Structures
1.
Amino acid sequence: MPKPAIKLRPLNVNTVLKDRVYEALKSAISLMDIYADEDPPKLDERRLAEELGVSRTPIREALSRLEQEGLVRNIPRRGAFVVRKTKREILEMICVWGALEGLAARMATVHASDEEIAGLRRMFATFRDSEGASAHIDEYSEKNINFHQAIIRLSKCELLENIAEGLFIHMRSIRSRTIRERQRVTDSIIDHMHIIEALEDRDAELSERYVREHTNELKEHINDYVDWLE
């Protein structure tokens, strides 16, 4: 009897490279503070190609895919830019995110383990009060973003995660900037503790309510005080 042999097809190296370049650019954009300046960040094809060690062809193809997803805008004779949302669009996105994260919190009370929920509390173990958080605002800002991502994941709902991913890039940038405004750190710490306690108690209704209220506070802050969005 002949021995079983593994069967493989030749890899399309070009396709693999295209996907890797696309994923690298998308990941890098997700980590940018795209609302830090008045102008949208420009993506220089030559610099991107040099940093990734590839030709400009897969860079252009990746930028085209990102444009189709609404993350990049190619302007003739000017180049490619990361898309910045208007104030109205951001407010709409926050409303949708609040609904998704609220549902995720409700689902987490059923599907998340005690250890996973305890992990949310450990995120803020080094920030006992608002003074400590303010003194390390960059670190706290990152923990804040990780906290909201974690709640989405604890839903254990892949479809919900995929939908939320489309909003995350802009939500991350908005949260990163607004956490530094009008002493929002204090309210953030209190809100997070309330959410964690509700999750620990497996109170689905309260968990969802606290998450929605927390997100609504962000919406009200942007509506009332943010003048750096169009």
Note: The domain at 13-82 is CATH 1.10.10.10 (Arc Repressor Mutant, subunit A).
2.
Amino acid sequence: MKLINRSQIPDTGVSHDPMIRKKVLIKKGRIPKLTNFSQSTIKPGQCCPPHQHPDMWEVYLVESGIGMMILNGEEIPVSQGDCLIVDPGEDHSMRNPSSKEDLLLTYFGIEQ
């Protein structure tokens, strides 16, 4: 067993945009096929650039705020409680259209 408290984990930038901050709760290699278990804060107006992962699924849970997932060019509004699954190879990005509220996402990746 390993107990981890989010408050003890330093913020780092996401690989697609270092201005978007994340906390990696579980790193790659700790659990087989899990690439990461993380939380990201997307500030008002911020957008994660479009990208894809050819060999993993990503699962997002919207903890708070509102956002826009862009999946293969289609805009999908998301809000607190929504869970999204992005399949391997799907082009995706996330943006926060709010002018006031952060968008908090908890997410993980699973290798094929």
Note: The radius of gyration is 14 Å.
3.
Amino acid sequence: MRTSTATVAMGVRPHPMEGHPFLLDVEVDRSLDGDRLTVTTTATNAGVLACAYGAGQHPYLSLGVGLVDQCTLQLEAGARIGSDDERHLPTGAEAVDRTTYDFRESRLSGPTALDFAFTDLICGATGRAWARLGGTDGGQAKLWADESYPTIEFYAGNTLAPERRRSGLGAEPMACPPNAAASVDALTRLEPGQSVSTPSGARLT
């Protein structure tokens, strides 16, 4: 079977501003090959100062009907980044072993409240970690991230309006953990002229 490939590239140059005195060239390439979508973000430090950099994507996985509660969920991650109740700021990584947040084996999501980042991603021989949302009809919405994205955030919309709540699952690859700007060590240091690319992708089967 012949499949068609479509590629779209978009670029932007955010200029220095107060609190972020850096000059970046950012390009996002989207490539659709049959039922496989790949999104690659490339950032180049176009300025004269070393730049603190982090990137992330905000896709949603959905099978079109039903709630996340009736879906199976799998995420190849060994730890969850906890957060405080007041401001939802990160409190540190916690192993998912023997907790309600252990999705290393596919299982029903149920009513589990999901608004957390997961880390210690388990990349296989292809160098990719996978998040998989499975429907009752056997269909799957899948997202992958390579090692340039060490964190994936899950968001099930528990705080949204009732008609939108838990109708899809935010599965967000992140090159740095939440609140990374509060810790320089959590960000990538780009020297002048240096580039970094972060690919991820999705597939519906």
Note: The chain has one domain: 5-204.
4.
Amino acid sequence: METNKPDRILSIPNLFSLSRVFLVPVFLYAMIHGRTQMAFIVFLVSALTDFLDGASARLLNQKTKLGALLDPFGDKMFMTGAFIILTIPSLSSPNVLPLWLTAIVIGRDVLIVGGALILYFLIQKKSFPPTLTGKGSTVWQFSVLLLVLLFNMLGKEAGFLFWCYIGAGILTVISGYEYVQRGREWLRSAPPKG
């Protein structure tokens, strides 16, 4: 999302992204205090702000470098917080995310951020477009969180969620592998420093 326009901190898309960041503690509060309906609603509102920040940036032509950082930062904060808290049995009932899935999701994100930093310092790579599998794994992860929150709000155990966890884990691993391969290709094709 490169732009020649000066960054406007208080642009509408940036406000949507910031609101998602501020919703993280509200979501965590609701989960810690067993307010499953509130947690589910806050999660849906967060998803709505994610849609609105991108749509408003395009419609209002307000794409900024700050927004390009705030949007994924808000996403990752919310998703990471949700994955961690829904893995704690005392806070997520009756459906609990398996620890292995949360470890895979967070591990992949750490790998991507670490790889991006390495690429930036080694070859000054600044743009990291997502892969199709990366987008797919994010949608699957979001769907898993939504379903767990929904069935916990309803107080119903959902056995089929196990297969959703498997699908999310497989897609996340594949996308992580693709990002590693893409990073290696960028390194190989970078012009030598002279």
Note: The chain has two domains: 1-85, 94-194.
